[in-house]
Amino acid sequence: MEKSGNQLYKTEKRTSASRAGGSLLGTIEHHKDVQVLYSNNSSFTRNCEQPIPEPEKLASDAVNRDATLGNTTNKVSAIHQEPGKYNRYELQNTIKKLLAGDAGKRIHTCMKPYAQDVAVKNTGKICHFDGIMACGSVWLCPVCSPRISQERRRELLNATKRKNFFPVMVTATLKHEKTDALSHLFQVLNGSLKRMKSGRVWQRFSEKYGIRAFVSAHEDRYSYTTGWHPHKHIVFFLEKPVNIDEFKREIVAIYTRQVEKSGGYASQFHSMDVQAGSDAFEKYITKDELPYELLGEYYKTSTHSFSVWELAVLAGEGDVQARMAFLEYANATHGKRKFVYSHGGKKILGIDEKTDEQLANEEPESVEITRIPRASWLIVLREEKQAVVLRIAEQGGKNQVDAYVWYLVKHYRQRWKQEPGVNSTA
Length: 426
Known about the structure:
The protein is an alpha+beta fold. Helices cover 49% and strands 14% of the residues. The strands form 2 sheets. Strands 3, 4, 5, 6, 7 and 8 form a 6-stranded antiparallel β-sheet that branches. The protein has a 3-stranded antiparallel β-sheet with strand order 2-1-9. It starts with a helix and ends in an 8-residue tail after the last helix.
């Protein structure tokens, strides 16, 4: 038998004293939210320190300045809408649906609360949440991946400045067909590079050019006509400048030989792109910051070749081929590392040992805007409105966030009461 609104409110009020933090302000905010969930009168508005005028209009006006609010089950088409820095949260919801039923994927734990309140904060450039779990999946999570990738690149940039190494940027790829499985291409590419960087031939090459350390990062693109296009970015840190043409000629010869031994093919002219010097390196270091932070990497940039994030968007829109490709990518990358350092490379470069999960959970300096009680946050997640909350927080501040959460929980509660089989005999 369902408890009345007053009974539920009293029960929640008794247990609120043991909430994490236990601050008076947090308890007041929690009581407000409980009244939103369980009260059928206007006591929420009366108990607010400042009455919230027309919360529905206040919230929708704030959202409409940046994106369409839509209904509670709206499907965001980030590839066609105006790109924005909070699109990643909407894309994360899409990817969770694509991977539904695969409990082994860490992304399903992302955004779940570990505290009684979820804080909404502003760094001055972007709003974010605190008090939630970060999955740390650099392959599949569009929320965690940019944080990890940018921190890894900043680590390298700072290391280069401290150690005064000469960086050489190498991009390695191989010939591929539409029918090639991504897992097979992974095996050939990774295996060839691993063998290339071992043995006497590599030892002589490394000593000749003064290679002190290197780090590699894997990237994939997909084409409907040519299939998967995997490639590795490798940054070599050399003791001093070298003849780059000679360097390229020798490393290409070593690499193409190993690809052939692996059963693949790599062109002597197109298998590797080699660029030297700080300009090329810094371009690589900063290349993801603009798309992720300002434009949203999920904005369509090509009509024939797609990043994995663009594939996820297309799959969410109902594209069957994109869906199959994305699921193949999710399985092929499972358990693999995206960033790999040479043996002892981090120590040589002066980089601290940090896992992807640690980087994803690092808290930037920020100012707290408001707090969302756990019960309300779970509804925000169910309604897939994380991005909307952040847009409102950035544009309107505390009052508008509180108003929007009040509005969202109110309508969720009303809809829950009306659903057949929940609290009716329908």
